[in-house]
């Protein structure tokens, strides 16, 4: 029988190394154990809006921030895949997808995308600065202000796995969605201990929204069908049935969040009107950043100044065509462009939303065209006195 003699110093050394390894593994493992009192390390922001309400612009304000991982309308994939269903039926799948994205779990896209895929298969990927810079793409720095065009040319062929890798390196995950019509659907996310969710509810005067929707009738037709539950048939919104549904949802969301809100909504809901943002961008942006626990960097300040004053590289060619001189007049354009007949119809289906969100109804074509008559009530005033608020008509 052969005996192998092992010197005792080697045995001791071996035991020490093994003990060290076990201790190391234990420390690693225990640091992964969830502790109930521990807060999630990331902040999750949902920009909740509807089509043509300035949400791409607000999305950019977050996307360009170096601490933010941003995705624009990831639930587009849900709607496109299951277009024969109604918005109500799809609510839960949309919520599930949003939750996974907040947690940087991109496997949720397996259900909606081809198995072999690149970064560029993700809807509107190139508007996300995080997907145009390291570690997702080597062409830009995280602190750069990126443009959709330049990013598209340089970053589209990176593998899809970069989305998840990039997401995990940020302190803030921000998602813009237009596919929620009910705040209560989001309650499970607000109470989920693995999330730290805050909601920015962005609204816009429904009459301005209609004017803008008229410029993209074809692009909205499939989504309209889903909102109206037409089993996959594309529809125009000639009778403002979709608008009615959108207005109803804004009232529902705003009422649910402000009249008798549940405790878990405290400090987690902020309503922003597009018109206020356009009139006083810096103060509204500061408020949104403060709400989101983000600080304004010098580069961002300069960029915001530029885009709100029509300066800097790119100028009006950028995705969010907004300069403050333009934007204020653009936000009033519906008053010259739409007929009074149409305005009356929109005011009928959206009366509740117009009143509640602090806009004035018009009674005549004369009032409609008279731009000296401001139809946007001051923000503080309308926030202060919802219940006693009496529209002039
Ligand atoms: C992904 O990028 C590769 C490399 O450039 C390209 O050959 C391939 O066609 C792309 N795949 C898809 C699904 O776009
Ligand atoms: C919806 O459309 C599909 C295919 O076009 C059809 O098979 C189905 O019967 C329709 N469902 C309803 C409820 O109309
Ligand atoms: C803002 O515009 C100025 C002047 O065109 C330009 O020098 C500067 O780089 C721009 N800032 C940003 C952050 O784009």
Order of helices and strands: HEHEHHHHHEHEHHHEHHHHHHHH
CATH homology-level superfamily: P-loop containing nucleotide triphosphate hydrolases
Strand content: 5-15%
Q: What structural category do the secondary elements indicate?
A: alpha/beta
Please report the distance between the alpha carbons of the first and last residues.
106 Å
The count of DSSP E runs of length 2 or more, i.e. the number of strands, is 5
* CATH architecture heading: 3-Layer(aba) Sandwich
Major beta sheet, strand line-up: 2-3-1-4-5
List bound small molecules.
2-acetamido-2-deoxy-beta-D-glucopyranose
State the helix count: 19
Major sheet attributes: 5 strands, parallel
Q: Evaluate the radius of gyration.
A: 25 Å
Can you tell me the overall shape? globular
Poorly predicted runs are: 30-36, 314-321, 381-393
What is the fold-level CATH name, i.e. the topology?
Rossmann fold
Mean pLDDT: 87
Helix content: 40-55%
For the record, what CATH class applies?
Alpha Beta
How many domains is the backbone divided into? Answer: 1
Domain Sulfotransferase: 44-352
Enzyme class: transferase
Transmembrane segments: 6-27
EC number: 2.8.2.-
Question: Which features characterize this protein?
Answer:
393 residues; alpha/beta; Rossmann fold; 5-stranded parallel β-sheet; 19 helices; 5 strands; 47% helix; 7% strand; disordered C terminus; binds 2-acetamido-2-deoxy-beta-D-glucopyranose
Description:
Belongs to the sulfotransferase 1 family. Gal/GlcNAc/GalNAc subfamily. The chain is an alpha/beta fold. It has a single domain (about 45-385), classed as P-loop containing nucleotide triphosphate hydrolases (Rossmann fold). About 45% of the residues lie in helices and about 5% in strands. The structure holds 2-acetamido-2-deoxy-beta-D-glucopyranose (3 copies). One 2-acetamido-2-deoxy-beta-D-glucopyranose (NAG) binds near residues 116, 118 and 157. One 2-acetamido-2-deoxy-beta-D-glucopyranose (NAG) binds near residues 302, 303 and 312.
